[in-house]
Design goal:
The protein is built from 3 helices and 9 strands. By secondary structure, the protein is α+β, with helices and mostly antiparallel strands.
Length: 132
C-alpha cells in the first residue's frame, strides 16, 4: 500500500474524526511500518497514535484522552469502535464468543469483553476484549 492508502486505513481503524489534525506521518520502508499521529484541534493533550504495517495490519493504537471533560467520543461511539476493531481482526469473533460486559474502569477507560461458552456455560479460557 502507498502512504495515502495507509493513512486512509489508519483513519478508518482509529475512527479519527475531523477534530484532529495530522501531526506525524512516517513511512519506514525497511521495517515495513507506517506511523501516524493526530492531535485534537481544541485540546492538544488529546491525541491518537497509530502504527500499521505496509499491508494495512494494525500494529499499535494509542488514544490519549487525558481529561474526562474533554472526552470526544460518546460511550456508544467507543463501544462501536471496540466492536469494529475486533471484527476487523477476528471477523467470526461475535459468532464464537458471548458478550460478557461493557464497563467503565477505574482509570476512566472502558472495557468491552466477550467470553467463550460451551452449551450455555462459560468455557474456562481467557476472555478477549478492547479497552479504551
Amino acid at each position: 500500500m502507498n502512504i495515502t492508502e495507509l493513512r486512509e486505513r489508519a483513519l478508518e481503524i482509529g475512527k479519527v474524526t475531523e477534530d484532529f489534525d495530522l501531526e506525524i506521518e512516517e513511512l519506514q520502508l525497511e521495517e515495513e511500518v507506517a506511523c501516524f499521529a493526530w492531535k485534537h484541534r481544541k485540546n492538544e493533550d488529546n491525541g491518537i497514535w497509530i502504527e500499521i504495517s505496509t499491508n494495512g495490519t494494525l500494529l499499535d493504537l494509542n488514544k490519549d484522552l487525558l481529561s474526562p471533560s474533554a472526552l470526544i467520543f460518546s460511550e456508544k461511539q467507543l463501544y462501536e469502535m471496540a466492536i469494529d476493531f475486533v471484527l476487523n481482526h477476528y471477523p467470526s469473533a461475535l459468532q464464537q464468543f458471548a458478550f460478557e460486559e461493557w464497563k467503565r474502569e477505574e482509570n476512566r477507560g472502558y472495557r468491552l469483553s466477550y467470553v467463550q461458552k460451551v452449551e450455555g456455560l462459560f468455557f474456562l479460557t481467557p476472555d478477549f476484549g478492547c479497552q479504551y
